[in-house]
Design a protein that fits this description.
The protein has eleven helices and 13 strands. By secondary structure, the chain is an alpha+beta fold. Helix 1 runs antiparallel to helix 2, helix 1 runs antiparallel to helix 3 and helix 7 packs parallel to helix 11. The N and C termini lie far apart (about 95 Å). The chain binds adenosine-5'-diphosphate.
Length: about 425
């Protein structure tokens, strides 16, 4: 029921009371005896209290006070609690030191920023890559990294994507910069030197672009001769004609693949710096409608619902390629008699280009892989309809350039919808409808 301190105190009181009673019985000084006992008890408590207070003021280093009874128990409990707290603080300190030591070894520069972009702490690599010094803690990062692309990225406050730059603090290397917001608007700035990785990818891109380019001319020559041979009547015409026509078809396929590979590598290379303009999408879709009808050769029913006032910022050719790829896929993967509807509209989220067909549809497990190069659900069908397996990879690359996203909805045997979502920042709704 009672703690050991209280028990000890009670034992002391009972024992001393017995002694007092015996003393009073002997001397007959009952009142004086009890008054003296009370005064003595109060004085003893005050003395212990003062000792305890002194000990508390002195911290853990102070000697254990020579208290007894309840006060000794209290002293013991407080010191035990204090030791536990100290142990916990030591552990926390050890952990934070361990984290700091580990962060120092990370080969990426890591900088923690507060709400106003003041530097809170940084790791050792930041001293090398970002040239930060101890005295920079508390300073604004914009004042230390003045690279305009970085400032723009920092201020845009849209950190889903990382930023790749080719020089930083006067060093001509390739860096990937990523900002990760955390805890109450704080930010973690991570800078990684990706020069080797970037160069390797560049070599691969250059190889594909050069190989495609080099193969283009010989293929054109071959195709030219094949056409001439088909058109020239000769003694063995009947025997060779099917073979020559097959060769011509195959060379056309190769040409289409080379053209798509070149388009892809052009999209990937970051050297395209042509100025963005307001693209007349309704105008493009008007022409596309005619081309789609030609491609379909009257086998499909088309419906075009186009917002004539809706324009987006970008480049006309790549955007046309996106729209054409999606519409031609709808034609190629929708059996005769099917319906294809194309919509160009906008809402609170941005502008949308959607192509819906009543075609063969795509099984759910294939959808995430459709934009991979040469990924086809049915290779034979893709080839038979003149597909290269690169169309959607091109679409994805172009859309990425414009921060747009491709969304695919499909049900096998029912049809598919391919929708491109363009961000609101790119949208312009003109007052007058386009002619
Ligand atoms: P391909 O040249 O083979 O059409 P794409 O990259 O354009 O290459 O498309 C990749 C694959 O996605 C196609 O092979 C096809 O299987 C599937 N696909 C694309 N569009 C459609 C569609 N509208 N309906 C059904 N399947 C489609």
């Amino acid at each position: 029921m009672f703690s050991s301190g209280v028990k000890r105190e009670l034992t002391w009181i009972v024992t001393t009371l017995w002694a007092l009673l015996f003393f009073c019985w002997l001397t007959d000084w009952w009142i004086e005896g009890f008054v003296f006992y009370l005064l003595f008890y109060i004085a003893r408590q005050l003395w212990s209290m003062r000792k305890f207070e002194k000990w508390m003021e002195g911290g853990t280093q102070a000697a254990f006070p020579p208290a007894s009874g309840l006060w000794s128990e209290l002293t013991y409990l407080v010191s035990r609690k204090q030791r536990a707290l100290e142990k916990h603080a030591d552990l926390q300190f050890y952990k934070s030191e361990q984290f700091k030591a580990a962060s120092m070894l990370i080969p990426d520069a890591i900088v923690s920023l507060d709400q106003q972009n003041h530097i809170e702490w940084f790791n050792a690599t930041s001293e090398k890559i970002l040239e930060l010094r101890r005295q920079d803690v508390g300073r604004k990062i914009e004042g230390l990294i003045r690279q305009p692309q970085f400032i723009e990225y920092l201020k845009a406050q849209s950190y889903q994507k990382s930023l790749t730059i080719h020089s930083l603090q006067g060093v001509q290397r390739t860096f990937r910069i990523k900002i990760i917001p955390y805890f109450d608007n704080h930010k973690l700035l991570i800078v990684r030197d990706i020069t080797d990785l970037y160069n390797m990818a560049q070599i691969r891109r250059d190889f594909i672009a050069n190989a495609s380019h080099e193969l283009r001319t010989p293929l054109t020559v071959l195709k030219g001769y094949l056409e001439a041979m088909i058109d020239t009547p000769g003694p063995h015409q009947d025997m060779w004609l099917p073979a020559l026509q097959n060769m011509e078809n195959q060379s056309e396929r190769m040409q289409a693949i080379l053209e798509d590979l070149l388009t892809l590598s052009k999209m990937e290379s970051e050297t395209i710096t042509a100025k963005e303009v307001m693209v007349d999408v309704p105008g493009i879709l008007k022409k596309l409608h005619t081309e789609a009808e030609q491609l379909s050769q009257g086998q499909h029913d088309f419906e075009f619902a186009v917002d004539d006032t809706l324009l987006i910022k970008g480049h006309p050719e790549p955007l046309k390629s996106v729209f054409m790829n999606l519409v031609s896929n709808a034609v190629r993967y929708t059996p005769a008699g099917g319906k294809i509807s194309v919509r160009w509209y906008h809402d609170a989220k941005g502008a949308h280009f959607a192509v819906t067909d009543t075609g063969i549809g795509i099984a759910r497990e294939h959808i995430p892989r459709l934009t991979e190069r040469f990924y086809r659900v049915d290779t034979a069908r893709s080839r038979a309809t003149g597909g290269t397996g690169l169309g959607l990879a091109i679409v994805k690359h172009i859309l990425e350039r414009y921060n747009a996203k491709l969304h695919v909805d499909s049900l096998i045997g029912k049809g598919s919808t391919f929708r491109c979502d363009f961000p609101l920042q790119r949208v312009q709704v003109s007052e007058a409808a386009n002619e």
